[in-house]
Amino acid sequence: MKIISLLLICCTLTLAACDSEPRARQAKFYAFGTEIGVSLYDVDKETANNTIDILEQTFSNVNNTWHAWQPSTLTRINEAIASKQAIAIEQDVAQLISLASSLAKDSQHLFNPAAGKLFELWGFHQDNWFESRPPPSAEDINNWLASNPTMADIDIENGKLTSTNPAVKLGFGGFAKGYAVDQAIAALQQQGISDAIVNIGGDLRAIGSHGKRPWIVGIRHPRQEGILASIALKGDESVFTSGDYERFFLYEGKRYPHIIDPRTGYPADQAMSVTVLHSNASLADAAATALFVAGEDWPNMAAAMAIDHVMLVRSDGQIELSPKMVDRVQLINNRKPVIIRSAD
Ligand code: ADP
Ligand code: MG
After folding, report:
1. Model pTM score
2. 58, CA 20 to 30 Å: which among 64, 110, 133, 137?
3. Which domains does the chain have, with CATH numbers?
């Protein structure tokens, strides 16, 4: 879990303190192979229970539609692309794919959800992704690089999707969680709920506040137990982290994490973690992945994606912040120094 709701920590460690704040309710369930945590403030029990049911449904819908390797709408689309066929798609499906295309374009295709074959080559699109195995052959990687699939190859017109490049294989692991969280928050707001956090395996979006005080979240240290920093959220904000420390496999003592640089075909290796703060969870999620790939060049990538708030932990452990993030993160033990970096 990358980001830990401090409120949840408080509840685990000091139950008495939470008893004196009975208006915050928490629930947990599982989806996307990870734990979803929902915190609701000032909501009665019945509304809370109904809301949790709706959220479970929302997450399960996104998961079932966009699962990259179990039969889903996405696997049907990928089969059509591979066999050079057009395929009819629903409007909500078109909407997510168009959003992915525009985020990919803004990121100069470092966020490349058309690179599903590459994620597959590396073994991350299977249930046993953590098992030790040799990396793909240089030949396979070079063939993939030569086929150069990007979201720019996809066309959607009159409800039909086509790809000019059969090497495109869509895989939305880089932003499906953000998309699901945005759907979940929309569902909460439809229920009239205005103070909540939806946390998916540590990435989250918060709305409103925890009564008179803000929601406060912790960002996990990429190499140690516990948190590196905390952030007091202002109303509607999402915090998404991409890191090299959760999904990776080991082979002959070397670590191969799951975020792949589409320019080289190999895992990106200039950062341990990148945290992005933005109101929109889909954008925050895609941007965290793109900035992780950009590595040293992250300030220019952040500018290209209209992201103002970034914290990056370099592979040497040094912390880099965007100018606007300086006022927002509270580093644990006032950890210094940090490097403040802006776009060229
Ligand atoms: P997490 O899901 O752990 O929060 P990310 O949001 O960074 O991490 O998503 C990583 C997933 O996205 C990978 O498992 C893979 O499916 C996919 N992915 C890997 N590299 C890229 C990339 N360059 N662009 C888009 N998606 C990627
Ligand atoms: Mg992401």
Report:
1. 0.93
2. 110
3. 69-163 (1.10.3980.10), 215-340 (3.10.520.10)
